[in-house]
Design brief:
The chain is mostly helical. The chain is 80% helix and 0% strand. The protein contains 11 helices and no strands.
């Protein structure tokens, strides 16, 4: 079952089941002593919470799978407009804090792919709070990337300093080629900004096979200009 597509229907079914068990519990409570009522209520609460957690976990897992499928539109087809359209369809209705974070981050990625970093930054700035979990490092990486491209070097370098340890940890477990490639490009920007061309070239060499694998020759050419101060 597609929990992402049918989440509202799943919630309706979940609510009906909850009401049904609440009625059963009420009938049970009317015929038993206080201790039995307490035990029954405790069992009901536990079952309710466990079921709610399972539903949300399944939904989140399927949503992440579908988001990665949409990301393939950028990686495989290099079609940011269709990516933005599909991402809007998939995540535009998310209302929770985490849902809004997912929506704004992924929309920003689409505009970054269009080289529209001002719009991407506006999406990033609408995120209500710094995300937690795996989205936290992606948030800081995307924000620094926008700042570097907009020549807001001071803001970008501040992120690089504060998130140095987090970025190093992500480099060891990048999850996907495009994440590792973005990280290497950030290091190229960082070292080029400080005049450390040798270190920038070291990350350029590390990024080469990823650019080739992802067919991103335009990124390779641009980062070489960054290293030589021609961007």
């Amino acid at each position: 079952m597609d929990f992402v597509k049918y989440k509202k229907q799943v919630r309706v079914v979940f609510t009906i089941i909850t009401i049904f068990f609440a009625i059963i519990l009420g009938l049970y409570a009317g015929t038993h002593d206080a201790f039995s009522k307490t035990k029954a209520m405790l069992v009901f609460v536990i079952v309710y919470l466990v079921f709610a957690v399972i539903v949300n976990m399944i939904w989140a897992r399927q949503l992440n799978k579908q988001i990665f499928a949409v990301v393939d539109i950028l990686e495989r087809d290099k079609d940011p407009d269709r990516y933005l359209q599909e991402m809007e369809r998939l995540t535009g209705a998310l209302k929770s804090g985490t849902g809004l974070q997912i929506y704004y981050i992924n929309m920003a990625v689409g505009y970054m792919a269009k080289d529209d970093y001002e719009t991407a930054l506006r999406y990033m700035q609408q995120i209500p709070s710094v995300p937690g979990g795996s989205n936290r490092v992606i948030y800081w990486m995307d924000l620094a990337y926008c700042y570097f491209h907009m020549e807001k070097t001071e803001e970008a370098m501040e992120i690089m300093r504060r998130q140095k340890k987090v970025f190093q940890e992500k480099e060891q477990n990048p999850e996907a080629d495009h994440i590792l490639c973005l990280l290497y490009e950030l290091y190229i920007f960082e070292n080029s900004s400080t005049g450390n061309r040798e270190e920038a070239m070291r990350y350029y060499e590390k990024a080469l096979p990823l650019w080739e694998k992802r067919n991103r020759d335009e990124d390779r050419a641009y980062m070489l200009k960054v290293i030589h101060g021609e961007s």
